[in-house]
């Protein structure tokens, strides 16, 4: 591409500060921004997010259709909510206007096993308008490509076990509430843990009916199995509250969480496959105490048994950088809702991102 990649930002909250800066630092051009918050609509991105020299005014998300039609960006980055049902309007307005779109939404990484109907509808709309939709972020690399790459170094794999944690304070109120932060353990069991004993078919049905929210690892195990060409026999999910012995204040929830109440949850997903490989993966999202930190630990049981730990990963920044580095591949992908296990492994953009658009996969590093 012989010009800058034109980018729109849909959602101007905490993540967008990094997303927009990373886009511009890698040679992209912000041409539009959208949000729902009336307090920032009409203000410049520079004033709201503290990013120098970006005078684009933030438009209402309700005006996205008209603005996208007018400016025709190459890609729109969606950083708002955490489920496909919530993101469907944003993805749809992009697809309607033939704009490629990529989201930080955790479910968007592999929504085929949790929101099939929504994903199929968006897939059809994207194909109809010749654009590509996808999800990316921290799980794309640190729960995905990193794991499948390491798998290629082993002779035999019996089980893959992963634990990853993150501070819900970094991702906004919707995510914190979705993790049960701030409620009592008894309320957690009534609202979230009540579905812990469902079998595979019952869980799938409950997800389809909207009774169960799939954890991030539900989608991630699907991504991993598809990438490794494994066939799922069974998959179950169990959500357990995380509690602390001391009171913890949450700025995001604007409350003090009492000792013994849930500060978040651990979502544990167990997957068995026809090929005999078992996955036990869990994500722990909660309000951190002073001595808590992000972790990402994985173990491959087999020959040889191998473990890897990423110490104190900067999850927010890594989420944003992973997504931005995906942009050239997104633009070059075939139309439809294309999950990233079907794309090449991510690479670092040493040159402006437009110089990677339209080149052969084998030439990405040149």
Automatic annotation (TrEMBL):
Pfam families: DAP_DH_C
Domain of life of the organism encoding this protein: Bacteria
Domain (2,4-diaminopentanoate dehydrogenase C-terminal) ranges: 145-350
Protein name: Dihydrodipicolinate reductase
Organism per entry: Companilactobacillus ginsenosidimutans
